[in-house]
Write a structure and sequence with these properties.
This protein is α+β, with helices and mostly antiparallel strands. Helix content is 47%, strand content 12%. The chain has a three-stranded antiparallel beta sheet, covered by helices on one side. A hairpin with a 2-residue loop joins strand 1 and strand 2.
């Protein structure tokens, strides 16, 4: 099975589509993923506002992946109070999109 690397981070959300953040240069930007906006999604009872919120949640999790993994490792491998505090801050004060 061939494995492909993920699109480099950071990512951002624009009108329900997820893009690689090209630091302001949007020429040639292509979406990584788009939220479904069709009759099927509407019949499923998922309004566009919720789909956009899901896209923002995905981007927030992806952009904070390294910090979250570090925080979890700190919690599992170390009981020093300062490391636990750092892990807490990383988990609850992560960057927005």
């Amino acid at each position: 099975m061939t494995t492909y690397p993920p699109t480099p981070r950071p990512w951002l959300v624009v009108s329900g589509a997820i893009f690689q953040d090209t630091l302001g240069d949007t020429r040639g930007a292509r979406p990584i993923a788009t939220m479904v906006r069709n009759e099927y999604a509407d019949r499923a009872g998922i309004p566009p506002v919720e789909r956009d919120a899901n896209a923002r949640l995905i981007v927030r999790a992806v952009n904070n992946y390294d910090e979250l993994v570090t925080a979890l490792r700190d919690l599992l491998n170390d009981t020093e109070p300062d490391r636990i505090e750092r892990a807490y801050r990383a988990l609850y004060h992560t960057r927005e999109e």
